[in-house]
Amino acid sequence: MLNGQSPYAGRLSGRLLGSVAGLDEELGVAAKYRPVKGVPRWLLVILTTIGIGVSVCYIFRFTFGGLMVTQFGYHYLLIALFLPLAFLMIPATKGTAASKIPWYDILLAVLAFGVPFYLFLRANDILWYGWSARAPIEGLVTGMIIWLLPVEAARRAGGLPIALIALIMSFYPVFAGHMPGFLVGPTMSLERLISYHGFSTESIQGIPMQAFGRIIVGYLVFASALVATGGGQFFLNFALALLGHVRGGAAKVAVASSALFGTLTGASVVNVITTGSVTIPAMKKTGYPPYYAGAIEACASTGGILMPPVMGAVAFIMADFLGMPYTTIVRAAIIPSVLYFAALYFQADFFAAKTGLRGLPRSELPSLRQTLKQGWFYIFALAVLVFFLFYIRVETVAPFYATGALFAASLFRKETRPNLHRLVEFLEKSGTTLMEMVSILVPIGLVLGSLAITGLAYSLSSELVSIAGGSLPVLLLLGAVASYIMGMGATITACYVFLALVFAPVLIDVGVNPLAAHLFVMYCGMLSSITPPVALASYVAASVAGAPFMQTAAQAMRLGIMLFLIPFFFVLAPEFILEGSSLRSLLVISTAILGIVLASGGLEGYMWRLGKLVPIVRVIFLTAGVLLFLPYTWGDYWGIGIALLIAIGFWIVRRRSIPPAAVGASAL
Question: Residue 17's pLDDT is what?
């Protein structure tokens, strides 16, 4: 090992900026992206450069000749710059990612640029002449194109389910009057619906695009800059240097590195592929079974979207939905994310202790001092981001300042100093990410527009209350099931936005804290990543680990049990998301941490100082842990009482000179 590098971490550098297509091929999956070379590649770079520049000008309110980009025109311009890339980069069908772009994709790309750019030029006329109520003939033609093109882009970028949902729901107002029961709504003519979708401040121009243009662009650019300058390599090296040598170090590195890498991507599958390609082989080398290695990586990567300060796109949209600063969402997510990763960490430690697994050899690990010396500027950039977010309180400009600080600080090291090659890689990475977001968010806006104008969202909410009989526990179970089902076929962003409009208001109406209600929907939508039959994160992790899919997914469900429970806990006790008195929050969090330790010990059959546990003791530990986690005082009393009884029992065993480990000699 030289210069703080590790044979494990070294494998990551080629993957962070590698094409997604190459990673898909490595896993035996049909390539999603076609190789972008020559003119298409430079179009990607140029359009991305212009798009980032336009965002900077809009957010910082720069003017040109006294003219300023309006919000209405700004959204059309972003669509014009990023939507065409979907047709240039993603083939119409899987397995046909040839380098040659067919004529129909070129035509679609031209339309995807030309139509929204034309609407950008006519933005003031659209508002002034009321195109949203009755558009002229050119408005109907362009409106239909800007309605349907994003749906096809969503099919390519996000899959067929989200495209079908967007297509059916966007046409819903045309036949709403003919629907049965609570699905009935006011009918709109096709011409009126085109005008509404294409030119109103709802639908295409609604909350998803508003959040994208106002705040998401900057944070995605910052995340891409971290990756392009080697931030992923630094975070993995840091986790290896800090935890690699301890008991079960490889699994703990997987937990820590996935949490850190989650601040860059907010996407579980990308997290699994990048960090898992290093941590899973390391876990297997130190003795973890392949299915366990894949499961812990899948759980850790799924939780990455929860990690502040740069969370997934859902958090930014949530801030717009609730009319709250993004910093409020970040603050609320801190404790749940820490508890989730703590549960994974403790389970990995108990499993390693029970099975006698050691850490990685220090000779194969990077030096902590050298790692910090080489990557201090990543921490500096994150500190700049946090400073502008929480101290200056300018969340829209914070990521741009942090990106500037990152590039400026990276000049101090030759290995990370920006050059033309690295700049192009950064723009390619940013453009690809921004293209995917536009391709998903515009169709989501269409769905929201239809739900709003027909009143279907209110009807669905009323029906849910009726089914649940006003019972909060029943409502929570219905919401969890609905979130899980939607999460199987749609992205977490699409799942959240739909349920935030339909289900979150129901919870709020029965007295749930608004922030807790929206976080509940977001957390439950993530369950499908590790839960069969879809369990995409588990599938990818199993492929990397060479383990059976169902065994890996089942283990991931057990390891990730806190992901299933935490949403219910912070709905019942908003103190988990720091809503309420500080003293009460401290008490709830303290008992929750103790509960996690006991529950983790019960799940893995091991506890510090006590050794292996027999089945009955495991059940008692698990029960005590859950009781301590419950936000009710009686739960704390029972949990603490059970924990004390266990401690007294083992103290008596020790007094009689019987090794505690022997008590659990037959443990599973």
Answer: 38
Range of the domain at 183: 32-200
As given in the structure block, the two tokens for residue 337 are: 């994310």
Instruction: Please name the residue that has the structure tokens 């800059």.
Output: 225
Q: Which of 423, 458, 483 is the last residue of a domain?
A: 423
Residue-wise pLDDT for 376-402, tens only, equals 888 999 899 989 988 888 888 999 999
- Whole-model pTM: value is 0.81
Beta bridge partners of 606: 612
In a domain, 120, yes or no: yes
Radius of gyration of the chain (CA): 26
Contacts of 516 (CB under 8 A, 6+ apart): 507, 570, 571, 574, 577, 579
Q: How far is CA 544 from CA 18, 291, 293, 479, 524, in A?
A: 17, 10, 10, 33, 26
Contact residues for 387 (Cβ-Cβ < 8 A; gap 6+):
none
- Domain shared by 131 and 237, yes or no: no
Question: Following CA atoms 595, 598, 600, 602 in sequence, which dihedral angle do they give, to the nearest 10 degrees?
Answer: -130
H-state helical runs in 387-419: 398-410
Looking only at the bridges linking them, the beta strands covering 606-607 and 611-612 are antiparallel
| Cis geometry, peptide bond prior to residue 309 (ω within 30 degrees of 0) | yes
> Does residue 393 share a domain with residue 248?
yes
Supply 404's token pair: 């500037």
Best CA proximity match to 76, nearest among 52, 43, 112: 112
- The dihedrals phi and psi of 611, each to the nearest 5 degrees, come to 80, -155
Confidence (pLDDT) at 405: 92
Which amino acid belongs to residue 466? S
H or E stretch at 179: none
